[in-house]
Amino acid sequence: MTDVVMITSANPRPAVLETALAKYLECGARVHLVGSFKAADMEAVQGWTTLHRVSPRAGAGEQARRKTDTMSAAERLWFHIEQDRAARAVVRRAGVVVALDERAVYSAWRVAQSRRTPEVHYGLGPGLRAVERLREQGGATVSEHAPTPVAAATDGLRRRLRGLPSDLLRTATGPLALRSRIGARAWRAAVSAPGVPDTLRQAATEQVVEGMWRSGRQSGAVVTARAAAGKVSDPAVRARLLHGVATRVLTSGRTPDNLAEVVGAQLAVADGHYASGELTEASKVLLEAMKLAFHRVAHVDQVTSPLAEDPVGFTAPFRESVAARAVVAPRGRISPAAEPPKDRPLRLLVATTANANFLHLIRSHYEAHPDVELRFLDMAEHPAMKRLNGAVQRNIGYRLGDDPLFGHSAEQQLRPYLDWADTVFVDWCKDPAALFTAVDPGDTRIIVRLHSFESFSYWPRMTDFSRVDDMVFVADHMRDLAVATIPGLSGEHAPRTHVIDNGMDLTGFRRAKSPSTRFNLGLVGIGQIAKDPLWALDVLKQLREQDERYRLILIGGEVAKLSNAIKAYTRKLDKVLKPLLAEGAVVQLGPTDDVAGALEDVGVILSSSVREGCHVGLMEGAASGAVPVVRDWPFFAGREHGPRTLYPADWVVETPAEAAERVRAVTASEESWRNAGKLASEHALTRWDWPVVRLDFDRLFFGR
């Protein structure tokens, strides 16, 4: 005979239960009911072998009551069954366990975890079919050995997963089950057990990871996914398991420790598709790998970056991937770029996409230049170009040889501009650069400028630099990073490289400052996590411990909360900032179109950033006569080039304590402060002001 244990957390309808119970008895089953129900109603139903109602023990201690108060209803039911000796005796006899309602599903699964043989089902119908099948097979045999939950989960995983209904599988791997350490360990061992088919392991692991994540065991989910992936033979399944949990970690606002490993697994899949001629699939997986590797949370929305920590190591998977190398394989150009014309004005096309912030002086200067005929192209304002820029997978596929229509469309859109221009200056090494290098430029010279964040994006990894004649960087340290990590910027097909400062009109920033300004620190452009205003607040705190005259003026808009990483940082910032604002130690000016006017009240200009190309706000502050104090930007600290080579060495400090010491030293007297500010202003105006920088652009465009 088969012992059927029905578990309920509510009061089943007696009429329905009596009809079903008769059918169970006809199959020779002994039926036991355990759980929470109205005893009088269930006693009226004939045929029970056991009828046992569980409830909180009258003598339960305060500790037990506190424990159950934190549980869900489903967890409380199992707790009471487990604490009831008579209920445990009934459960031990189970050959089939039937959950009669949703809350009882968790208890049914926990019974199965402690026994080797019980089948678990949800509902009277599935349970009856199981009893009928067991009768045909000669009945169920209950093992005398009750294995541990880990052994129970691992042993016969294939049978459990194939036979378990999908709703019970979701519950068995849901938060209720995986919130307990025993349940989490059981399923971790199960999904990494040897001999399980890849597809089955994948399905189970994804369910377990989902349950662990929802139950608050994020680190356990990562460990489980990696353990299961290590047992998988199919590269695609392995990549999917690793990618799924890595995406969850990034979405939560953190960087996976094994990000390079996950990217490498995806690139291996892309390589397989590419070798098999499945170019559309190869481009799809390549894009997934690129988006994961250069996710903004990993490099932009935190104060650390795995690429900055190990530039060569982090980008190694892309250099090793056959498909990734094929995307940036040099196609070259039929004709070399022509020399600038001598008998007519230079036709200069300045191109960008929705960001002309650093082009105003270049445009105004060359629009008025007698030897230049200038046209400006914002590709975001042209629907067809905007669509092509957004069709990233098609661009990748075209470079792999898959989508000739994309190349034809790019040719149609860009050829009129290329035929007209002698030189194309593309600002920002992102989608415009990738699109312009998708077509042969003819004899038109192509110049691309890379600022900073592009090095931490995927766009340069899908740009053909053999069709770029000159690369412009805003600082030496950005050139070093780009050349070390971006394919095509080194080797025989690499473009010429130049370092030219951002064009800035600094003359208008030089204004008189009142004596009281000496104790005002300023930070410009706080709308990015890279500015790390918490570091500046630490400097302020150390200064005010000795002299409360010091204040910090924050100039710029608040950070846009685009990710959980940003939200986590801003929560810390708000906590530190709130009391400082209340006591007047910090002043928030918000966004302004008159930065020069705001800087009149700043005596010391800070650069607290973790990374910069060239810190425009700092340079403007220096031009205004504020004394610069520059953090040795951590992304570039200790390298050949960085703030110490971009700025005078005495401006640069390593720690907040060093920064506070420099501030005290230069503001010790009004005379020392004014002298330091005067030197800073002279340096800024003679080095970064537009009349100086435009000569570098003249040499770039005219070759002289």
Describe the structure concisely.
About 50% of the residues lie in helices and about 10% in strands.
What can you tell me about this protein's structure?
With 704 residues, the protein is of the alpha/beta class. Among the domains are: 234-321, no CATH class; 346-499, 3-Layer(aba) Sandwich (Rossmann fold); 508-688, Glycogen Phosphorylase B (Rossmann fold, 3-Layer(aba) Sandwich), CATH 3.40.50.2000. Helices cover 50% and strands 12% of the residues. The protein is built from 35 helices and 17 strands. It has a 6-stranded parallel β-sheet, sandwiched between helices. It has a 6-stranded parallel β-sheet with strand order 14-13-12-15-16-17, sandwiched between helices. Strand 12, helix 28 (533-544) and strand 13 form a beta-alpha-beta unit. Helix 13 (198-214) packs antiparallel against helix 14, helix 14 (218-229) runs antiparallel to helix 15 (235-251) and helix 31 (616-623) crosses helix 34. The longest helix is centred in the C-terminal third of the chain and has 19 residues, at 564-582. It starts with a strand and ends with a helix.
List the helices and strands and how they pair.
Elements: E1 3-8, H1 14-26, E2 30-35, H2 39-43, E3 50-53, H3 62-69, H4 73-83, H5 85-92, E4 96-99, H6 102-114, E5 119-122, H7 124-136, H8 149-154, H9 157-163, H10 166-172, H11 175-178, H12 181-191, H13 198-214, H14 218-229, H15 235-251, H16 259-275, H17 279-293, H18 296-299, H19 306-309, H20 311-320, H21 322-327, E6 346-352, H22 360-367, E7 372-378, H23 383-390, H24 392-400, H25 404-420, E8 423-427, H26 431-436, E9 445-450, E10 470-473, H27 476-485, E11 496-499, E12 520-524, H28 533-544, E13 551-555, H29 564-582, E14 586-590, H30 595-598, E15 604-607, H31 616-623, E16 627-631, H32 643-646, E17 652-653, H33 656-666, H34 670-687, H35 690-702
Parallel strand pairs: 1-2, 1-4, 2-3, 4-5, 6-7, 6-8, 8-9, 9-10, 10-11, 12-13, 12-15, 13-14, 15-16, 16-17
Helix pairs in contact: 1-7, 4-6, 12-13, 12-14, 13-14, 13-15, 14-15, 15-16, 16-17, 16-20, 17-24, 28-33, 31-34
